[in-house]
Amino acid sequence: MIKINLLPHSKRAKASDTEKQIIVFAVLVLIVAAAIVASGIWSGRKIIELEETVQEKQTQRQLLLARVGRINQLQRQLEEIQSNISAIKDIRRKQQLPVRYVDETVRHLHQEMIWFESFNLSRDSVLDIRGVALDNQAFARYVDELRSSPFVRSVSTQRTSSRQVMNLNLVEFQFQIRAGPAPEH
C-alpha cells in the first residue's frame, strides 16, 4: 500500500547554512587579510634591504670616487714629471750641441793646411770663421768634409782672396756654417 503524507514538510533551519557561509566568509577574509599583512611585511623588509643596499653602494661609490680622484691627481703629477724629465733631457741634449758643432768643425780641419784666425759661434748656431789655407784645394776639401757632417746644415763661403804671408801665397777665407742637431733615427 501506498501512503501519501499530505502534511507539510518540516522546515530545516536555514540559519545554519547562513552561519556556515558567514564563517567561511570570515575565514576567507582572515586569510586574505593575513596574506595582505604578510606581503606588506615582506615588501617592507625588501624595501629596507634595498635601501640598505643603495646606501652601501653609495658609500662604495664615494670611496671609489675619492680613489679615482687621487689616481687622476697622481696621473697628472706623473705627466707633469714626465714633461719635466723630457724638458731636462732636451736641455741637456741642447747644452752639448755647441760643443759638438765646434768639435765637428775642428775634427775635419787639416792643421798643416788650414789655420783659423777668428771663430765665433752665435746663439742661433751659426759659426763665423775666418782664416787662411795653404791653397784653394785644401779649403775646398775642408768645406766638402764639413758638408758631409750630420751637424752641419749648410756652409756658405763669403769671401776668398790671396794673401802673402812670409813669402808664401796663401788663400784667405771667410765662411759661415749653419749648424743643427744630428737627425734622429
Number of strands: 4
| Number of contiguous helices | 2
Element pattern in H and E: HEEHEE
**How far apart lie the N and C ends?**
135 Å
Main β-sheet, spatial strand arrangement: 1-2-4-3
State the low-pLDDT regions, or none.
none
**Radius of gyration, in angstroms, nearest whole number:** 54 Å
Mean pLDDT across every amino acid position: 86
Q: Strand content of the residues, in percent?
A: 15-25%
Looking at how many chains there are and whether they match, the oligomeric state comes to: single chain
How many strands, what sense, and barrel or not for the largest sheet? 4 strands, antiparallel
* Backbone structural class: alpha+beta
Shape: rod-shaped
What number of domains? 2
- Approximate helicity band: 55-70%
